Amino acid sequence: MALFKDWQDFADKKSAEPNAQQFWTEYFLREKDFYAQILKSEPISGTVQALAEKFGVDLIEMTGYLDGINDSLKVANDLESLTAESEVSLDYDPEKLYYNMVAAKAEWLYTLPEWDAHLTEERRHELYKQQKSSTTIVKGPKVGRNDPCPCGSGKKYKKCCGR
């Protein structure tokens, strides 16, 4: 049973339905509860089935949560071979998780009050700025036609690389 493939197919199908917005809104609310519980406890591990039961969701939805947190784990789970009996760990790196939530524009997750126990407000602000600046394109100064060519040839830009 390839849970990850089932999750991808399920998500694609739901996204194509007319009520997709409502489905994803409800999913994100449940995801918010999931992360609130994760942030309140010690690292959690167990089978996918056991974790699904612990969080009160079905296997497919649990796989979605595992997909979302996988890049933030200290040791990533092998999602491609995931089955209900697969042992998984949710031992996450708090800074990496926060950074990835900002990258995903998941404000409902990176503004959870449970973050106070893991990262200071200053550190969260630093991570937020770091992530936002990593996606900002900064153009260098414009080279004028009569400026020396930046390639180092000694010629004017218009006679070298500016042609």
Automatic annotation (TrEMBL):
Pfam families: SEC-C. It comes from Anaeromassilibacillus senegalensis. It comes from the Bacteria. SUPFAM superfamilies: Sec-C motif. InterPro entries: SEC_C_motif. NCBIfam families: PRK05590.1. This is SEC-C domain-containing protein. Gene3D superfamilies: 3.10.450.50.
